[in-house]
Amino acid sequence: MNDHKVMSSVLDVDKIRSEFPALTRTVHGKPLIYLDNGATTQKPLQMIERVRKFDAEEYGTVRRGAYKVSEYSTQLYEEARQKVADFFGAGSKSEIIFTSGTTQAINLVAYSFGKQFVKAGDEIIISNIEHHANTVPWQVLCEERGAHLKVIPVNDEGELILEEYDKLLSNKTRIVAVNHVSNALGTVNPVKEIARRAHSVGARILVDGAQSSSHMKVDVQDLDCDFYTFSGHKMYGPSGVGGLFGKMELLEQMPPYVTGGDMIMQVTLEKTTYARPPARFEAGTPPITQVIGLGASIDYMNGIGMDNIAEYEHQLLEYGTKCLEKIDGLRLIGTAKDKAAILSFYLDCVHPHDIVTCLDQDGIAVRGGHHCAQPTMIRFGVPATARASMSFYNKTEELDALAESIRRTIKIFS
Ligand code: PMP
Fold first, then answer.
1. Which residues are near ligand 1 (CB < 6 Å)?
2. Does the annotation mark 349 as catalytic?
3. How far is residue 335's CA from residue 96's CA, in Å, rounded to a whole number?
4. Ligand 1 pocket check: which of 41, 211, 229 to mutate, most ligand atoms within 8 Å of Cβ?
5. What are the sequence ranges of the domains in the chain?
6. Which of ligand 1's atoms lies nearest the C-alpha of 130?
């Protein structure tokens, strides 16, 4: 395409790339082109080094020992909680609960909020383009409580149809659970407006932020969401950690999800009283090292600037969209006006799994499958898609290579 100049220099991408050792790998003898950032992101040296230092020199258990090693570890752990709270604009760090990731965070809310607030005949609203992690827990809850699941439909571009959403809302609606960004299509949902409408009927809103947290500035107070979930491994941090923001007035009223050590006020053999949030929802020894690592990945993203990240990735999206649109027989699945840097596509002549295998031979890592969003695939009449999902460390040259490799794949199969 040769118009790399269209990209502004909001970021020093070469410098950024030099901080990600994984990007120097070769695959099948080719330099790795990593375009599966929607699944998981690679890790910067600063985060890797922070984790190494913590494990080597600072490691201890948290919240228990009244000795120096444990006190210091606890201090670092709580500092990381503050970083997460600041990053997402939470009013207080006590509104941040560490979990193993988005999946566990949504399950926590479905179980705990559900137990407290959802009864037979109530309604829960999700959308047609949710990850299974934001679908199955609500189905289970509805089954258990005798509640009903309602689904916001999408148009052919993959945008939620808000007029239809309005028709679903009623005083029976207890919670609306939608993603901020669809992992299968890239659609950015208007969650602030969705929240406003949910609140107007007295319902609550959970925003699945797995795909937005590392790609745009998120302010949970501005969005006015009641819950927001995120995963560390999609934020340039470790796997095994993520979390939940919840408004304190709600968390205070919610029963524990997992019980055991560290989440109690007092235990006698007859009765247990529970700690206040966030401890109430963090039973057992947490993923201490991973939390520290997540704090470091947040420092790293802040260093680049979330607005710069969003602007650069938007340029990548526009560039990549133009590249793929020129390929005969390629259908982009998800063409919303407001999109994150995700390109999901379908070729009539090649199954997505074969596309992935062929691209892999060129060192290009993309995902092929239903992306844990089977209802989305059904809506768009495809069994699966191939998906290139970008990060601020990707370059336009890599998108040229992607397009070239897709063309070669088409030739092989035609
Ligand atoms: N929701 C969305 C939109 C996602 O993209 C993902 C991960 N692909 C999840 C939820 C689940 O996240 P995790 O596997 O980190 O729990």
1. 101-103, 131, 133-134, 179, 183, 208, 210-211, 231, 242, 372
2. no
3. 33
4. 211
5. 4-43+305-409, 49-303
6. 3
Taking CA atoms only, the protein residue closest to ligand 1 atom 14 is 103
Amino acid letter for position 106? I
Name which residue sits closest to atom 6 of ligand 1, judged by CA: 210
Are 4-43+305-409 and 49-303 in the same CATH fold?
Answer: no
What is the C-alpha separation between 270 and 193, in angstroms, rounded? Answer: 47
Q: Which of 306, 184, 310, 296 is nearest to 236 (CA)?
A: 296
Phi–psi pair at 309, nearest 5 degrees: -60, -45
Q: What fold, for 49-303?
A: Aspartate Aminotransferase; domain 2 (3.40.640)
Distances (CA, A) of 263 to 52, 72, 94, 218, 283: 28, 20, 14, 29, 5
Model pLDDT for residues 193-250, shown as the tens digit of each residue: 999 999 999 999 999 999 999 999 999 999 999 999 999 999 999 999 999 999 999 9
- CATH 1.10.10.10 for domain 4-43+305-409, yes or no, is no
Q: pLDDT, tens digit, for every residue of 32-48? A: 999 999 999 999 999 99
How would DSSP label each residue in 245-282? EE-HHHHTTPPPSS-STTSEEEE-SS-EEEPPTTGGG-
Return the residue whose CA atom lies nearest to atom 5 of ligand 1. Answer: 183
**C-alpha 65 to ligand 1 mean position (Å):** 34
